[in-house]
Structures are given as structure tokens and as C-alpha cells.
Design a protein that fits this description.
Helices cover 36% and strands 20% of the residues.
Length: 215
């Protein structure tokens, strides 16, 4: 990962913090692993970043009540803001051509695949984001409070969606296996019962192949 990509990441995080927007989103993509390492959340863990995508989970489409506009703020700060032609999702591009996207939990069976939010961005609605939304913690870095999923929730989510990841399946599997030895067993046992029967089956089947991994 080039140094300017780390710089791009932090500049956007600082832009959100400056505009009181960090509290409304959760960092959920692979950059979470970088934040775990930087904040000392998983002592001894070293992230190996290989992505130019930055993903944020919108906590609540109706918050803040007064509404803010991340797209307009980013555009005014010199970022390129676009709307996906096919899906209608908001995409923001950094000077280093990193792609920033926003996701939101899809709850209803008939809910739209893209939802407008009070943050001024159109977020892609996906299932299986519940763990990342419910089980969060704060990564304190550079006097900023960044919401991230608990590592155990992050790994469980990665396992659940692994078979759906296409060409990213093997990369995600490697990340899962790297993180597993650093997880807290008590936290894992707290979160695991919240899985659906289908999710439980997927996780159990995945872990059965790695019985020697410590949880």
C-alpha cells in the first residue's frame, strides 16, 4: 500500500471528524484491520492492507435529524463525487483514486437495494450487516473517536459472507485466519448466539476446517 493511500484515508477521516460526521458511520471494510493495529485493539496484530476501497456503514438513514451532506462537503474539499450509473449509489474518489462507498443494513424483504440517507449519500443496502452495526467499539487515534466493529463481529461477518465474495474469497479467508488467534473468546461467545440458524451453520462449517485455530 502506497504512503499516499494512507494519507488519503486519514484526510477523509479528518474531514468527517471536522464536520461531526464520524459518530454516524462505522468503518467496516478492510481498513478496519489497519485501525485495529493503529489503535492497539489487538496487541501484536499487524494489518496487511491490499485494497483501495474504503467502506462505511451508515448507522441510521434518518440521522442526524437535521441532515448533513457528506457528498457536498467532500466535493467542496476537492474530492470527486459520482453516482453509480447502474445502482445509484454515491461514490467518492480521493486524490489517490481510492473509492469511498457507503453501505446500510437491509432489513425488510421488499426494501430497496439503494437508500437515500440523511448524510447526503445514497447507500447500498445489504443483508448480514447486523453484527457490524450492533457490536461496535471506539478506536481512539489522533484525538479522534472512530467507530469500528468489535474484531469478533468483524470476523464472524467475514466468515458468513465469504462464499459470496467471488474473487475476494481467498483474500478474505486469509484475513480471517490471521485475525482468529487474536480474538477474545468471551466476546466471541457473547456474539455467537446472535447468529441466525443459517449463519451459525455457515460459521460452524467454516471453523470445522480449522480446528487447531485458537478462539
Amino acid at each position: 500500500m502506497a504512503e499516499d493511500h494512507y494519507s488519503d484515508f486519514w484526510e477523509f477521516i479528518k474531514l468527517l471528524a471536522k464536520n461531526d460526521l464520524l459518530e454516524h458511520v462505522v468503518v467496516i471494510g478492510s481498513w478496519v484491520e489497519y485501525l485495529y493495529a493503529q489503535a492497539g485493539i489487538l496487541p501484536g496484530f499487524d494489518a496487511n492492507l491490499r485494497t483501495l476501497d474504503i467502506d462505511f456503514l451508515v448507522k441510521n438513514r434518518d440521522r442526524p435529524v437535521q441532515g448533513k451532506n457528506i457528498a457536498a462537503i467532500a466535493r467542496d474539499a476537492g474530492y470527486t463525487v459520482a453516482q453509480d450509473v447502474l445502482e445509484g449509489t454515491t461514490k467518492i474518489y480521493t486524490p489517490g483514486l481510492m473509492e469511498i462507498e457507503f453501505l446500510i443494513l437491509q432489513q425488510g424483504a421488499g426494501e430497496q437495494s439503494v437508500l437515500k440517507t440523511n448524510l447526503g449519500v445514497n447507500a447500498q443496502a445489504l443483508r448480514h450487516l447486523g453484527l457490524l452495526k450492533e457490536f461496535t467499539m471506539i478506536a481512539r487515534i489522533f484525538d479522534m473517536e472512530i467507530t469500528v466493529p468489535m474484531p469478533e463481529a468483524y470476523v464472524l461477518h467475514k466468515i458468513i459472507i465469504n462464499e459470496e465474495r467471488g474473487k475476494k474469497t481467498e483474500k478474505d479467508k486469509a484475513a480471517i485466519l490471521t485475525l482468529l488467534p487474536f480474538l477474545n473468546g468471551e466476546t466471541w461467545e457473547k456474539i455467537f448466539p446472535r447468529l441466525t440458524k443459517k449463519e451459525n451453520k455457515i460459521v460452524t462449517a467454516f471453523l470445522s476446517g480449522y480446528a487447531d485455530m485458537r478462539l
